[in-house]
Design a protein that fits this description.
By secondary structure, the chain is α/β, with parallel strands linked by helices. Helix content is 45%, strand content 16%. It has a single domain, classed as Hypothetical Protein Ychn, Chain: A, CATH 3.40.1260.
Length: 152
Amino acid sequence: MGSGASSSAAEAIKPRKAAIIVHSGDLDKVMSALILGNGALAMGLETTLFFTFWGLLRLRRGRLARAPLSRLNLLGLGRWLMRRRMHKARVASLERLLTDFKALGGKVVACELTMEVMGLKREDLEERWIDSYGAVGAFIAEAKEAAITLFI
């Protein structure tokens, strides 16, 4: 009986957090990460998006809206068709989703290792979106306390 009470107490004090790795830079995947991140924030979870590899490329100046589709890109035609359908369905743009994410208190971490590997400097990135820069340890610190951890 004692272990059940301590387990409940541990769960009660466990931080309500979500940690999401944004590895892909594809339109549909970045959009999914932002929609899930906004949903987690709306449900009261502290939420961190860790942008790495191709996901980090979306945070380059002027590159957020230039994401290709993961499938059926069709030399850009697929992206155009998807944006048209999203607009018709009143789905927010990537910029709006990221603006909302930040306004709700979400944190964005840019991967320093990816920056080094891809030859990116801080001034190459849209710094208004980024809260901090870190490597794998920054993500692990968030993930080990998170109730939800996703890789997109």
